[in-house]
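Exercise 3.2. Students should predict the tertiary structure of the chain below and write it as structure tokens, then compare their answer with the key that follows.

Predict this chain's 3D structure.
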Amino acid sequence: MSEDQLHNTAEGDVGGTEAPPSGPEAVALNGTKEGLDVRGLFPEVDLIADEQLRNAVVAVWEELWVQSAYIRLADVPTSTRIPYPQVKHCQGIVKGALAIAEVWESVHGVVLDRDVLVAGALLMDVSKLVETEPGLDQHPVASAIGRALPHAVYGAHTALNHGVPLSVAHIITAHSPNGGKTPGSAEAHLLDWVDQADISGAGYDIWARRVLHYQP
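Answer key:
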């Protein structure tokens, strides 16, 4: 190879070299699961005054993320029919719940337990991390857990194993018509409606599905 060829090759190497992908692109490329920063995603967790409950919320998310078949959190859907990212739905729920709590308390005199409200908001849909999985075409399908158990039951079971109180476990199961319980506390009622409203806020017609669900 001549000196000119060597010089041109070197220039080509330098000019044509691209930085290796990072972040979600790198995760998708090498197939490794991305890390989970619960407090970064949901800073509201630090509003939970009870340290044990606060740590339990983080631990539940971490445990179920390890069990999840997804490698990117953004790929976890709200449901097999609603591809909207579940993490955004959860962020909408907790922020909406805190905003409405202010109204309920100031206007209606409702007394709400902020620890129960925030923990419930962050855990009510956490089992969605394991209730679906990527199908052969990467379209989400129900996992073995999703096929065998009603929505949210596995999340409630995991939460109880981490010492989460029954008041929060009640919210997890009662927010879903398939959970077997209707909301029985002010926090559960608030979160049940915020959950549905947030789906509408994301642009999906949840009310049509809900009405059909309750037809006799």
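Discussion points: Confidence is low (pLDDT under 50) at residues 1-17, 19-29, 211-216. The chain is about 60% helix and 5% strand.
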